[in-house]
Amino acid sequence: MAPLPGAELVQRPLQLYRYLLRCCQQLPTKGIQQHYKHAVRQSFRVHSDEDNPERIQQIIKRAIEDADWIMNKVGAWPLGSACELG
Q1: Is residue 34 included in any domain, yes or no?
Q2: Which stretch of 37-41, 55-59, 80-84 has the lowest confidence by average pLDDT?
Q3: According to the model, what pLDDT value does residue 72 have?
Q4: Exposure of 35 in the CB half-sphere (CA atoms within 13 A)
Q5: Nearest residue to 71 (alpha-carbon basis) of 43, 45, 42, 33
Q6: Is position 73 within any domain?
Q7: How many domains does the chain have?
Q8: Across residues 70-81, what is the average pLDDT?
Protein backbone atom coordinates (compact mmCIF):
# COMPACT_ATOMS: atom_id res chain seq x y z
CA MET A 1 0.00 0.00 0.00
CA ALA A 2 1.68 3.18 -1.14
CA PRO A 3 1.60 6.37 0.92
CA LEU A 4 -0.85 9.02 -0.15
CA PRO A 5 0.40 11.76 -2.43
CA GLY A 6 0.75 15.17 -0.84
CA ALA A 7 2.89 14.26 2.15
CA GLU A 8 5.56 16.64 0.92
CA LEU A 9 3.06 19.51 1.10
CA VAL A 10 2.29 19.02 4.80
CA GLN A 11 3.74 21.97 6.73
CA ARG A 12 1.25 22.69 9.52
CA PRO A 13 -0.36 20.52 12.20
CA LEU A 14 -3.86 20.80 10.73
CA GLN A 15 -2.56 19.67 7.33
CA LEU A 16 -0.87 16.73 9.03
CA TYR A 17 -4.07 15.83 10.87
CA ARG A 18 -6.06 15.78 7.63
CA TYR A 19 -3.35 13.82 5.83
CA LEU A 20 -3.23 11.18 8.56
CA LEU A 21 -7.01 10.79 8.62
CA ARG A 22 -6.97 10.31 4.83
CA CYS A 23 -4.31 7.63 5.31
CA CYS A 24 -6.56 5.90 7.84
CA GLN A 25 -9.35 5.74 5.26
CA GLN A 26 -7.05 3.70 3.00
CA LEU A 27 -6.53 0.94 5.58
CA PRO A 28 -8.22 -2.39 4.79
CA THR A 29 -10.76 -2.86 7.62
CA LYS A 30 -12.98 -0.60 9.70
CA GLY A 31 -11.41 -1.91 12.89
CA ILE A 32 -7.91 -0.98 11.76
CA GLN A 33 -9.16 2.39 10.52
CA GLN A 34 -10.79 3.17 13.86
CA HIS A 35 -7.70 2.06 15.78
CA TYR A 36 -5.38 4.40 13.88
CA LYS A 37 -7.87 7.30 13.81
CA HIS A 38 -8.03 7.05 17.59
CA ALA A 39 -4.21 7.00 17.77
CA VAL A 40 -4.01 10.11 15.54
CA ARG A 41 -6.50 12.00 17.71
CA GLN A 42 -4.70 11.01 20.92
CA SER A 43 -1.36 12.11 19.53
CA PHE A 44 -2.77 15.49 18.54
CA ARG A 45 -4.18 15.96 22.03
CA VAL A 46 -0.83 15.10 23.59
CA HIS A 47 1.05 17.58 21.38
CA SER A 48 -1.58 20.33 21.28
CA ASP A 49 0.41 22.65 23.52
CA GLU A 50 3.63 22.38 21.49
CA ASP A 51 4.74 25.85 20.36
CA ASN A 52 8.33 25.30 19.24
CA PRO A 53 8.30 25.49 15.40
CA GLU A 54 11.37 23.27 15.11
CA ARG A 55 9.82 20.59 17.31
CA ILE A 56 6.54 20.82 15.38
CA GLN A 57 8.41 20.14 12.13
CA GLN A 58 10.14 17.15 13.75
CA ILE A 59 6.77 15.77 14.86
CA ILE A 60 5.31 16.27 11.37
CA LYS A 61 8.26 14.53 9.71
CA ARG A 62 8.13 11.59 12.11
CA ALA A 63 4.34 11.24 11.84
CA ILE A 64 4.54 11.03 8.03
CA GLU A 65 7.34 8.46 8.23
CA ASP A 66 5.30 6.41 10.72
CA ALA A 67 2.18 6.64 8.56
CA ASP A 68 4.12 5.44 5.51
CA TRP A 69 5.48 2.50 7.53
CA ILE A 70 2.02 1.55 8.78
CA MET A 71 0.49 1.84 5.31
CA ASN A 72 3.19 -0.47 3.93
CA LYS A 73 2.94 -2.91 6.85
CA VAL A 74 -0.84 -3.22 6.77
CA GLY A 75 -0.95 -3.21 2.98
CA ALA A 76 1.36 -6.24 2.89
CA TRP A 77 -0.97 -8.39 5.03
CA PRO A 78 -3.59 -10.64 3.53
CA LEU A 79 -6.99 -9.16 4.33
CA GLY A 80 -7.98 -12.05 6.58
CA SER A 81 -5.03 -11.68 8.93
CA ALA A 82 -5.46 -7.90 9.18
CA CYS A 83 -8.25 -8.56 11.68
CA GLU A 84 -5.66 -9.80 14.18
CA LEU A 85 -4.43 -6.25 14.81
CA GLY A 86 -6.35 -5.63 18.00
Answers
A1: yes
A2: 80-84
A3: 86
A4: 13
A5: 33
A6: no
A7: 1
A8: 67
Distance CA 44, CA 51 (A): 13
Alpha helices in the chain (DSSP H): 13-25, 30-46, 53-76
Q: 10-39 burial by CB neighbour count: b if 16+ within 10 A, else e? A: beebeebbebbeebbeebbeeebbeebbee
Three-state secondary-structure class, residue 22:
helix
| Domain extent at residue 60 | 12-45+54-67
Task: Output the CA torsion 4→67→85→2 (10° steps).
Answer: 30
Task: Tell which residue, 34, 26, 13, has the closest CA to residue 86.
Answer: 34
d(CA 11, CA 19): 11
Q: Decide if pLDDT at 2 tops 70.
A: no
**84 belongs to a structural domain:** no
